[in-house]
Amino acid sequence: MIRLGWLILGCLFVALGVIGAILPLMPTTIFLILAAGCFARSSPRLEAWLLDHPRFGPTLRAWRQDGAIGRRGKAMACAGMTLGYGLFLLGARPHWPLALLVATLMAGCAIFVLTRPAA
């Protein structure tokens, strides 16, 4: 039963990753990393399919082996965070405490991404 739960969760993360590949501000790779982890606990065949995928496999293997993020991925992640924050400021027009909180959280995420080794 637990294995089935991991399998369903893995499929959900793959679906979110596919949506992220289509929508500009939704991430793809993090969902596929989570899917690979779920499949590692439920379906070695699906895990191998993700890790051997010609488009996403190298990124997933680099993350799994070294915790590495490629330079292009780092740049795109930081650009996406910046664009997302700008849209948040324009669309929500938050008071300064909320704007500062969101900026701090996003800066923390950007620092995490930028301090990972390059693939």
What's the layout of helices and strands?
Blueprint: H1 2-22, H2 29-42, H3 44-51, H4 57-66, H5 71-92, H6 96-114
Helix pairs in contact: 1-2, 2-3, 2-4, 5-6
Describe the protein.
- The chain has 119 residues and is mainly alpha-helical.
- Helices cover 79% and strands 0% of the residues.
- The protein is built from six helices and no strands.
- It has helices at residues 2-22, 29-42, 44-51, 57-66, 71-92, 96-114.
- Helix 5 (71-92) runs antiparallel to helix 6 (96-114).
- It is globular and about 50 Å long.
Total E-strand runs: 0
Question: End-to-end span in angstroms?
Answer: 36 Å
Compute the average pLDDT: 93
Poorly predicted residue ranges: none
Q: Estimate the strand proportion.
A: under 5%
- Rough outline: globular
Largest sheet report? none
Helix proportion range: over 70%
Structural class: mainly alpha
The gist of it:
The protein is mainly alpha-helical.
Task: Using brief descriptors, characterize the structure shown.
119 residues; mainly alpha; 6 helices
